[in-house]
């Protein structure tokens, strides 16, 4: 293969479902801190909207309801935030016992730089009325839910405190270009450190309310249910768990003796990554990996040089710890909808 031909080689998304479209990013083949547009993972509950409005309205408990257009946004002071976007169901396929739902492996995650206007700035324009408690975001995609026998839009809320965080954005650009249509163009909410279901795409309307929002994507889905057959102990999915993924080598690789670079990413919804450790002996001993690019909302890239001279089969584990003191467990917290999987990552390789 010539040098020119090699330059054309690229990684592609992995299809999980065609309608609605759900695609995993090629997580194992990126060593950069931002993803190109073509490799952002895609998560949908409904078909793509037939028509997209280039404006949205803020209404509800506000002093002055206002409509904002894309043209207005492009002339307003903006902010850029590099952030991980991870589906709450990322790694669902790894739960034991198995759970129903989209069988994501490790690629329901992407990262890049989102540019937009802080939501709190927009709410300053409209003003908030007394009693405001939550902010509801309604998307332009919709469909029928069989469990409630209703046609509904995708909609979720944020508590007022999170909505007013300076880094909660209504984004209109990704990596300094318009957000791809399949990832939310023209307006997408970005909520750093929360799982991706909070970052509502194709925003149609923002409504300030004085009570707890009870839409099905908040009260039924994206809830941790610790028990298989009843709802006792349920609680909402919000912050990302501390997590890590081994990118290279690949699971079930066959390698030669010598030096091998074990590399990957780690991320958290609280603080930053404090350390990543690697084990080559099934968790009996651990060695520190070298961390790179430890930004506030972005994943950390890490590397560990493995010197191996003995042939055989090996299990490689990675575990991350964040500055909030959370460490990846050996076994993930099982829940019947399969959210928040964050057990130590594991691959197996053979040395010949």
UniProtKB/TrEMBL annotation:
GO-annotated biological processes: sulfur compound metabolic process
GO MF terms held by the record: heme binding; molybdenum ion binding; molybdopterin cofactor binding; sulfite oxidase activity
Swiss-Prot/TrEMBL cofactor(s): Mo-molybdopterin
Presence of keyword Nucleotide-binding: no
Moybdenum cofactor oxidoreductase dimerisation domain mapped to chain residues: 238-350
Record bears the keyword Metal-binding: yes
CDD domains xref list: SO_family_Moco_dimer (cd02110)
UniProt KW keywords: Metal-binding, Molybdenum, Oxidoreductase
Residue ranges constituting the Oxidoreductase molybdopterin-binding domain according to the UniProt record: 54-216
Record protein name field: Sulfite oxidase
InterPro entries cross-referenced by the UniProt entry: Ig_E-set, MoCF_OxRdtse_dimer, Mopterin_OxRdtase_euk, OxRdtase_Mopterin-bd_dom, OxRdtase_Mopterin-bd_sf
UniProt source species: Peribacillus glennii
């Amino acid at each position: 293969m010539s040098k020119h031909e090699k330059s054309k080689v690229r990684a592609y998304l992995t299809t999980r479902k065609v309608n609605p479209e759900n695609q995993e990013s090629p997580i194992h083949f990126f060593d950069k801190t931002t993803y190109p547009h073509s490799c952002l993972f895609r998560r949908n509950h409904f078909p793509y909207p037939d028509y997209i409005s280039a404006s949205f309205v803020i209404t509800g408990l506000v002093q002055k309801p206002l409509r904002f257009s894309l043209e207005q946004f492009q002339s307003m002071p903006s902010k850029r935030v590099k952030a991980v976007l991870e589906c709450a169901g990322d790694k669902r396929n790894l739960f034991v016992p198995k759970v129903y739902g989209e069988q994501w492996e490790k690629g329901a995650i992407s990262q890049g730089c989102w540019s937009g206007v802080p939501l709190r700035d927009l709410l300053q324009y409209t003003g908030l009325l007394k009693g405001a408690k939550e902010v509801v975001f309604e998307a332009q995609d919709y469909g029928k839910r069989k469990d409630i026998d209703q046609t509904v839009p995708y909609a979720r809320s944020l508590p007022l405190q999170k909505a007013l965080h300076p880094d909660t954005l209504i984004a209109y650009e990704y990596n300094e270009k318009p957000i791809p249509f399949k990832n939310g163009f023209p307006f997408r909410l970005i909520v750093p450190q929360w799982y991706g279901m909070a970052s509502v795409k194709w925003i149609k309307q923002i409504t300030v309310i004085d009570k707890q929002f009870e839409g099905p994507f908040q009260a039924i889905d994206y809830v941790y249910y610790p028990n298989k057959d009843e709802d006792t102990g349920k609680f909402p999915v919000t912050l990302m768990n501390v997590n890590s993924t081994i990118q290279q080598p690949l699971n079930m690789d066959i390698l030669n003796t010598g030096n091998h670079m074990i590399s990957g990413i780690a991320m958290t919804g609280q603080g930053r990554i404090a350390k990543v450790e690697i084990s080559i002996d099934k968790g009996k001993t651990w060695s520190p990996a070298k961390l790179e690019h430890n930004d506030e909302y972005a994943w950390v890239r890490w590397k560990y040089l493995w010197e191996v001279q003995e042939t055989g089969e090996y299990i490689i584990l990675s575990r991350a710890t964040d500055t909030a003191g959370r460490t990846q467990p050996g076994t993930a917290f099982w829940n019947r909808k399969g959210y928040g999987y964050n057990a130590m990552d594991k691959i197996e390789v053979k040395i010949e």
